[in-house]
Amino acid sequence: SALLAVADLTKDYGTGRRALDAVSFQIHTPQLVGVIGSSGAGKSTLIRCINRLVEPTSGSVKLHDAEITSLRRNDLRAMRRQIGMIFQEYNLVERLTVMQNVLSGRLGYVGLWTSLRYRYPPEDIQAAYALLDRVGLSGFENRRADALSGGQRQRVGIARALMQRPKLLLLDEPTASLDPNTSRQIMELVSNVIHEEQMPAIINIHDVGLAKACCDRIIGMRDGRKVFDGPSSALTNQR
Ligand code: ADP
Ligand code: ADP
């Protein structure tokens, strides 16, 4: 069965025009799936409907056979623990240290105070050190998030998401605020870690060249519809 199965996913924000129109695809192997398309094509809506940051109007999303779209609040919260999310604006807690931000991935985004008072078991702390090393931030543990560059922040975001031991990683324009060099480094890091950890990831990415270079598979979106789905190598330059 599929790691992720999306079927007829549709979103109408109430504007009369479908932002997402019956999009279906499945992911069967750990791979980096790039979602491309011009602004307004529905890329972000697609990514956000998968973990219901945006509520889909209809359709189905199954993560390892568990249906996400029908879950009630509490079960949805538990399900989101299995989906790592990485944002364009990083969403770090600016006044906390790199280490505190990464550790908070273990508890989720509910209750910062819970997260601060919580006594993390040594294996969590070890895991956080290992992840920081993996994303190239060894020695940055005690820096405050607000003292980091954009690229460093996104590395923290990646380590925090991996701290959840997710079954799926969703990345919503993670490189949109970064310069081309840093974007490339972040994409290569994402590609390497998801293959190492054997987890699928879906990334909303504006830069088609970068998507083609770093993603295993490309889903092309236009006007809310899926207009391309295939290996990156099959993507032609005129679209
Ligand atoms: P992309 O990520 O490809 O730029 P989006 O998913 O952000 O596309 O948007 C798809 C369409 O849905 C666009 O027409 C956009 O204007 C519309 N849209 C996105 N968010 C909202 C919202 N909160 N309310 C109404 N319309 C929205
Ligand atoms: P926007 O771009 O519309 O301002 P954001 O992308 O900044 O929205 O974040 C939306 C909300 O989702 C934030 O409050 C954020 O803390 C929360 N959030 C962060 N990670 C997750 C997750 N994995 N699952 C669900 N919600 C999350």
Automatic annotation (TrEMBL):
Domain of life: Bacteria
Keyword Nucleotide-binding applies: yes
Pfam families, sorted: ABC_tran (PF00005)
Protein name: Phosphonate ABC transporter ATP-binding protein
Taxonomic source organism: Paracoccus methylovorus
GO molecular function, a single term: ATP binding
InterPro entries membership: AAA+_ATPase (IPR003593), ABC_transporter-like_ATP-bd (IPR003439), ABC_transporter-like_CS (IPR017871), ABC_transpr_PhnC (IPR012693), MetN_ABC_transporter-like (IPR050086), P-loop_NTPase (IPR027417)
Keywords: ATP-binding, Cell membrane, Membrane, Nucleotide-binding, Plasmid, Translocase, Transport
Domain ABC transporter: 4-239
